[in-house]
Amino acid sequence: MKIGEASRVSGVSARSLRHYEDEGLIVPGRCSNGFRDYCPSTIDRVLVIRSLLESGLPVRLIREFLLSLTDGPDVGMDVVRAEFLHEVQSYRDRLAARIAVLSDQQAALDAYLREARRTGL
């Protein structure tokens, strides 16, 4: 299917589909006229990519995961899945640490504002 139909079917804009291709996340086929040709398996991959991006994972991590899926039959899926989940957990932990720092900063600012209002600053 052409990019317009792929966009409609996947719910992802044509611009995003081209971006996913530029980032190496998908490789659509090409018609004889040079137009992109999206097969059902590429659409399935787009849906996975969209879900992972919506959960906040960086493109780098998604690309590494998707590349590991196409490395060949000698790579065990259990190993790939375990490594990916480890990376996701690590990313989540770093995110949680950043949230904790931001929460502490917010609490400090709230305390400052309370004190400023109390003393009339």
Automatic annotation (TrEMBL):
SUPFAM superfamilies assigned to the protein according to its UniProt record, in alphabetical order: Putative DNA-binding domain
Key words, A-Z: DNA-binding
Gene3D superfamilies (UniProt xref): 1.10.1660.10
UniProt KW DNA-binding keyword: yes
Domain HTH merR-type: 1-68
Record flagged with keyword DNA-binding: yes
InterPro entries in the cross-refs: DNA-bd_dom_put_sf, MerR-type_HTH_dom, MerR_fam
Name of the protein in its database record: MerR family transcriptional regulator
A Pfam family this chain is assigned to: MerR_1
Annotated PROSITE patterns: HTH_MERR_1, HTH_MERR_2
